[in-house]
Amino acid sequence: MAKIRPFKAVRPTRDKVSLVASRSYQSYTANERDSRMDYNPYSFLHIVNPGYKYQKEISGEERYKLVRNRYLEFKEDEIFTQDGSPCYYVYKIVNREHESFCGIVAAASAEDYENNVIKIHEDTIKNRENTFKEYLKTVGFNAEPVLLTYPDNEIISGIVAKMAENRAEYEFTSTYRDTHYLWKVDDPKLINQIQEAFSSIETIYIADGHHRSASSCLLAKDLKENNPNHKGDESYNFFMSYLIPESDLKIYEFNRLVKDLNGLTKEEFLIRLDEWFRIENRGLEAYKPSKPHHFSMYLDGEFYSLYLRKTIYEFGDALDELDAQILYKTVLKPILGIHDLRTDTRIAYSHGKNDIISVKSRVDNNEYNVGFGLFPASVEQMKKIADQGLKMPPKSTYIEPKLRSGITIYEF
Length: 412
Prior knowledge:
With 412 residues, this protein is an alpha+beta fold. 31% of the residues lie in helices and 24% in strands.
């Protein structure tokens, strides 16, 4: 049963939260980061990019120590304060498309991760796990929650709805026109009801943040081994998570772009595709797949629809039904010669929130030779793959909500 507990969050003061909150560090270009830090001394980017202060790129242990210093300075300057007792935090995001996501920020158990109560559907890279583990160990906090999803639960939904009737602790709109709300759940009765409701849930799934959760579990092992008085309830045994019901999760596809046809002519390539797909040339019609096992392709100024020949393709496990895996097994690997999707520089990805026209533009601009559009995976597919202990290919899903850093901070 899932152990989801409240914690004492370190948070920005109400008047500064909109200034502190930032997107993930990697989502900014260097110019965007510099611009934000030039004009906003409160941005969380000042903490995670401490070299800005010295106009120098800093990495490794030296950077980690400076991140720790910047964080402590934000606390000393009372930009951050810490709640006096453990709380849950109801967090709602309404994006510019008016889609709403509402869940609970809490501490999830590293032990549950190890025991497969919290299930994964994506492979992680060991050196990235270890790098982030060392980062966490040095800085002593985590500011970006792992996105978890659970089966819809009436008790939790009822409490969330009740909290949302009150004035929010935070309410602000980002420059991306996403509006963020946060309510603090500090009533002991409600805290107990939430904890008991989560304890009745058998399985929780990681939607986004596989490396962060894996790194947190490695850190928990390290600190446990070095603590002769380990009890199991120490803060390092948990990691910050944002838990939303499955009905609130939004999954987009990742489209594929490939630089060349692996030495084939256009005609040879189409003939090879015909083995696996019914192909229709749709000319300038911007075709987008409308159901699973249908694909779009943009090649040489024209769109094509590709319908999988199901009498030829063999469906074995849940992974074989995933469109990203189908494309890999029938096209990317055998025809285009792309074996390692993580390292091959000939392939790139464009998430489905970008219009299919963005794929067309990148091919027309000669960045890539061919583009493929996919139908998005479902929550049920993601769960089946996780339940069978399988792993999706990289960039199989683009999942929302995307969270801001620095709104709630979990200290180890």
